[in-house]
Amino acid sequence: DPYAWRRAADLRIMAVSSPEGGPMGAIDSTLSLAEAWQALLHAAHPATVTAAVADLSLSPAGWRAERPVSPAAGELLDCLFPLATRPGRLAIAQLGQSLDGRIATESGHSHFINGPESLVHLHRLRALMDAVVVGAGTASEDDPRLTVRHVAGPHPVRVILDPRGRVTPDRLLLRDPEAPTLHLHGEGACPEGAAGHHVTRLALPLAEGGFAPAAVLDALAARGLERVLIEGGGITVSRFLEAGVLHRLHLLMAPLLIGSGRPGLAMTPIATLDEARRPASRTFRCGDDTLFDLDLDTP
């Protein structure tokens, strides 16, 4: 067959250019984005995610692959292996904001400051965690689902911080049974309505009108929820940051200027820049947005 060599060459070219799956994709030995994500899930949830990638190892010191890694897979591993591999308890917060530090307009409109790639990143954070936490304002005004829909992975336990018991039972977190929900309310507060079968209510003592962030994390850890994402809103994230209980902070900066509205972080004023925190940081691209990964464990 005078054309056999050409057909074989075409097959090799197609195999190398095929990014995922299928018999031709199987010939390509490059580690894919899907495989990298599977390895991260396994590192974060070894008891529940059993399909590890045999030739890819992850540890707190870094990651190592036995075969070539695609650029997208390499960047994903660089970004998320500190979260997936950290032993013990982990508290990370995430905020999506404009270049001038706004997470919403003055009316509260925030959909969508960040692009679709940032939404995928947020869902990856949820999938790597045991629990995702929002304040009562976010639960009531944004009415989020807090599930993992844009990536493969397990849903975290959804946690509402509701010191005054003001979140009404018509909100999605309290009526959508897709994932378990922990409704934390203040001692003496009586949340409205009966809780669904997926909702557990737990009273916590109040400190200065709210919950002490450390006490929240302790209560979650006591229930086996050691890896926690503080998702919003800005006031809740600010309280956890100022309390010094966060290990990392992810800020997703969108290339727009709002000029007014709700700030992402609102903390106790400082007099001089010597008092400002300067954590070690890394940056990654998320479509048109820029992710700042801040390591709060560093001085």
Highlighted features:
299 residues, alpha/beta, nine-stranded mixed β-sheet, two-stranded antiparallel sheet, 9 helices, globular, disordered N terminus
Could you please describe the fold and organization of this structure?
With 299 residues, the protein is α/β, with parallel strands linked by helices. The protein is built from 9 helices and 13 strands. The strands form 3 sheets. A 9-stranded mixed sheet has the order 8-7-6-5-9-3-10-13-12, with helices on both faces. The chain has a two-stranded antiparallel ribbon with strand order 1-2. α7 links the parallel β6 and β7 (181-186). The termini are far apart.
In short:
With 299 residues, this protein is α/β, with parallel strands linked by helices. It is built from nine helices and 13 strands. A hairpin with a 2-residue loop joins strand 1 (56-59) and strand 2 (62-65).
How much strand? 15-25%
The order of strands across the largest sheet is 8-7-6-5-9-3-10-13-12
* Separation, N- and C-terminal Cα atoms: 69 Å
Which series of helices and strands comes N to C? HHHEEHEEHEHEHEEHEHEEEE
Low-confidence stretches: 1-26
By helix and strand content, what is the structural category?
alpha/beta
What Rg is obtained from the alpha carbons, in whole angstroms?
22 Å
* Count of individual beta strands: 13
Give the overall average pLDDT. Answer: 89
Number of helices: 9
Tell me, what's the shape? globular
Major pleated sheet: 9 strands, mixed
Helical residues, percent: 25-40%
